[in-house]
Backbone:
């Protein structure tokens, strides 16, 4: 996520204070850049007004790709390319193909979804996290407000963060 | 705000704060390896060395080095395979099924259990690969790849091939599930790292995780869908393993009860192995506040329930063998209970059916010593279960002139030791360099569970 250089950070100790603070601060017209938390806080994405993730749809699409691929592969190999007569039985018995079809569906859905998650969230082994406050992976919740994207003055933003229950309000500049 | 009923016991004791969780778990990763760890590692590397020696000769001279004979063509190899795969069922069960059921007690045990799952599946996969003899050609034999024989494809009607797909899918999906959960915790270690090497390593491992609310929302959705996918997957794996036997026509194997019976047995032995490992980890790493007696009791209840299901399955098998009126089926079971392998059968019965019933007593299921001993007894019993199913069904062949007994050789034992060495080496490395408890998940219940104690 490309963003500005000058931020005001509100540090919160408690997830319930944070949830109220997010609503409170947004009502005052402050645009929040992002909130960084050490653990998933339920309801935070709703408070921030984020849309529901579409990853389940991606998982479904990858899943049916796996199903199709598995069935096509088996029908092609045993039905068309090299039919094998095994005790006079059907060349392409569908019930026998179910286990492999199921496994391929799960495999494709899982890997496809996780791959999509990595791509959309910009997670990669050589990725460098833009760290606002080192404590945000330990025990503090950090609300970052981008000064360049807000029309309010830094003082007004700091006051809004303080009023909402932040234990500290800091500034952070990226060069 | 999360509310937990006051009737429930807290899942984290000792009034831990969020910061304490970070400190308590990261301490093991950041500190120097202890003497105990070095010793444990040396012992498992010793097992691994013996195993590598026997593996070399098994591959060099062929699997004739094992004690197999014309009648008993499958013995310790597939027994060990099924045993390890079974053990590898607990981790994904804990993280997937318990997640879907919103069982929060999974949170402090799922990391180690999933790690154990992955290592157990690796150990399991060793046996079919060794059994191939020339395992470097295994890809051609086991996967549908175009090959030098023309386009002669693998046989999709064969349960052994389904096994290849089931186990490789299970392994890779479990690995991904485990890794997704590790990413936020690696970020915590990265942000605390003081030296350059660990900063670089954990930075790469954490994939640039920043804990943004948006990413957490996606993470939660990925975890939920993966749990939904892994739940039928974990049940399918041992079902398909049981097809290896159930779709044959050997008396004693040809049974429709096998899939649920194998799955229950897998969960049973998997939980027992989780208990064995966690009781030691909790003691050595002083994690008593995270893995509480409450956790151990809940796991023991699962062991008791699945142990009872296994017991009912054994008795059903016996009943159906008699009720079916099929002479061969009746003989197979009579021979199991009274034949030359009766000692294995009754060891299995004692370890798997009788011993878990002790957990009806609250005193026993909350006792650490009793749990530890019984968890090992259960896994001994589960090894015998597979041995009984495999060897006693084969050793009295159709013609009495082909009847035989199985005697393991040094190479059978050595190849089994190899997997023990591999398993424990991997587990000890994990316990030293990875966070053994899912910090992010445990932190999310600190407010509702730990702080309310105060």
Residues:
């Amino acid at each position: 996520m490309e963003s500005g250089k000058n931020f005001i950070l509100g540090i919160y100790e408690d997830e319930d204070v944070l949830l109220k603070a997010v609503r409170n601060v947004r009502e005052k017209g402050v645009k929040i850049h992002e909130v960084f938390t050490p653990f998933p806080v339920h309801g935070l994405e709703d408070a921030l007004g984020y849309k529901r993730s579409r990853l389940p749809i991606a998982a479904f699409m990858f899943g049916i790709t796996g199903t199709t691929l598995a069935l096509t592969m088996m029908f092609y190999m045993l039905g068309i390319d090299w039919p094998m007569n095994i005790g006079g039985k059907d060349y392409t018995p569908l019930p026998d193909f179910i286990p492999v079809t199921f496994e391929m569906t799960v495999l494709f859905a899982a890997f496809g979804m996780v791959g999509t998650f990595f791509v959309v969230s910009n997670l990669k082994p050589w990725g460098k996290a833009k760290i606002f406050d080192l404590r945000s992976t330990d025990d503090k919740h950090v609300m970052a407000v981008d000064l360049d994207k807000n029309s309010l003055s830094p003082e007004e933003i700091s006051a809004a963060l303080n009023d909402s229950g932040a234990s500290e309000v800091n500034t952070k500049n990226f060069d | 705000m999360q509310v937990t009923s006051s009737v429930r016991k807290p899942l984290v004791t000792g009034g831990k704060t969020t910061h304490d969780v970070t400190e308590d778990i990261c301490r093991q990763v950041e500190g120097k390896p202890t003497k105990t760890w070095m010793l444990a590692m040396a012992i498992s590397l010793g097992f691994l060395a013996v195993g590598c020696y026997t593996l070399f000769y098994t591959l060099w001279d062929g699997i004739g080095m094992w004690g197999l004979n014309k009648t008993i063509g499958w013995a310790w190899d597939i027994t060990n395979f099924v045993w390890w795969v079974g053990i590898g069922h607990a981790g994904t069960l804990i993280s997937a099924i318990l997640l879907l059921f919103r069982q929060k007690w999974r949170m402090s045990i799922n990391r180690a259990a999933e790690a154990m799952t992955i290592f157990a599946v690796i150990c399991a996969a060793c046996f079919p690969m060794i059994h191939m003899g020339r395992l470097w050609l295994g890809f051609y034999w086991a996967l549908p790849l175009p090959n030098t024989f023309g386009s002669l494809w693998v046989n999709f009607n064969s349960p052994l091939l389904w096994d290849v797909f089931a186990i490789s899918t299970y392994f890779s999906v479990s690995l991904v599930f485990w890794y997704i959960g590790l990413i936020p915790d690696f970020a915590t270690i990265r942000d605390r790292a003081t030296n350059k090497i660990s900063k670089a390593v954990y930075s790469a491992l954490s994939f640039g995780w920043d804990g943004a609310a948006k990413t957490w929302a996606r993470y939660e959705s990925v975890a939920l869908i993966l749990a939904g996918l892994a739940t039928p997957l974990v049940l399918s794996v041992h079902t398909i393993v049981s097809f290896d036997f159930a779709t044959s026509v050997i008396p004693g194997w040809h049974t429709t009860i096998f899939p649920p019976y194998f799955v229950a047995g897998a969960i049973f032995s998997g939980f027992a192995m989780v208990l064995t490992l966690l009781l030691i980890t909790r003691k050595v790493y002083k994690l008593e506040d995270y893995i509480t007696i409450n956790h151990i009791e809940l796991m023991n209840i699962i062991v008791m329930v699945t142990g009872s299901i296994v017991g009912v399955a054994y008795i059903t098998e016996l009943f159906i063998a008699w009720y079916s009126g099929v002479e061969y089926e009746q003989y197979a079971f009579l021979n199991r209970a009274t034949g030359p392998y009766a000692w294995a059968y009754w060891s299995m019965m004692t370890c798997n059916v009788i011993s878990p019933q002790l957990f009806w007593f609250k005193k026993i299921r909350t006792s650490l010593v009793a749990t530890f001993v019984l968890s090992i007894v259960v896994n001994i019993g589960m090894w015998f279960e597979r041995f009984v199913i495999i060897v006693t069904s084969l050793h009295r062949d159709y013609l009495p002139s082909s009847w035989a007994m199985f005697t393991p050789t040094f190479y059978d034992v050595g190849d089994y030791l190899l997997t023990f060495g591999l398993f424990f080496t991997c587990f000890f490395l994990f316990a030293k360099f990875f966070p053994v408890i899912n910090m992010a998940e445990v932190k999310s219940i600190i407010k509702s569970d730990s702080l309310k104690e105060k």
Residues 18-453 of chain B form a domain with the Formate dehydrogenase/DMSO reductase fold fold (CATH 1.20.1630.10). The CA atoms of residues 146 and 153 of chain B lie 7 Å apart. Chain B touches chain A through 69 residues (CB under 8 Å).
